[in-house]
Amino acid sequence: MKNTEKILYFAYGTNLNKKIFLKKYKNAKYLCKYILKDFELVFRSIYRVPDIQRKRNSNVKGIIYEIDEDTEKKLDIYEDYPKLYIKKFFYKNSKSVMYYFMKRKTHTVKPGKYYLEVMKNGYRQNKFKFNLKY
């Protein structure tokens, strides 16, 4: 029998774009917008991709999706887990919420144009104010 355990996943960066995300991951279910406090969004690596890091009095805008194990496996491939990103967790209403966190904290860089455009669209879709200074 297949395990159908549901996983809560906090998406930020390009995965804020619901149209792309829900088309790519058909079993995912949008639950709510969420603000992760005391973190900031940055871009790293030669790929200039989004990452988050702790920063007091800052926040990261995101979405919480409910995903299944198949979707998590597909996300692991997309996020290059565990080579580029690792998984971390926080709790919301006593439930564990998974997110991807860059394994090696290289210096920050300007975002790649593709990532920035996809993110801007995601911010608009979710009625988040886009206030990245790039």
Short description:
Helix content is 22%, strand content 42%. It is an alpha+beta fold.
Write up what this structure looks like.
It contains three helices and five strands. With 134 residues, the chain is α+β, with helices and mostly antiparallel strands. The protein has a single domain, classed as Roll (Hypothetical upf0131 protein ytfp). It has a five-stranded mixed beta sheet. Strand 4 and strand 5 form a beta hairpin. It is globular. The termini are far apart. The mean pLDDT is 93.
Q: Which terms summarize this structure?
A:
globular; 5-stranded mixed beta sheet; alpha+beta; 3 helices; 134 residues; Hypothetical upf0131 protein ytfp
Write the layout of secondary structure elements.
Layout: E1 7-11, H1 18-24, E2 29-44, E3 49-67, H2 69-78, E4 85-92, E5 95-102, H3 113-125
Parallel strand pairs: 1-5
Antiparallel strand pairs: 1-3, 2-3, 4-5
First CA to last CA: what distance? Answer: 49 Å
- Rounded to the nearest angstrom, the radius of gyration is 14 Å
Strand order of the largest sheet: 2-3-1-5-4
Number of helices: 3
CATH topology value = Hypothetical upf0131 protein ytfp
The amount of helix comes to 10-25%
What is the makeup of the main sheet? 5 strands, mixed
What is the 3D shape?
globular
Percent of residues in β-strands: 35-45%
Mean pLDDT: 93
Low-confidence stretches: none
CATH architecture: Roll
CATH class: Alpha Beta
Number of strands: 5
Structural class: alpha+beta
Number of domains: 1
Please name the fourth-level CATH homologous superfamily: Gamma-glutamyl cyclotransferase-like
Order of helices and strands: EHEEHEEH
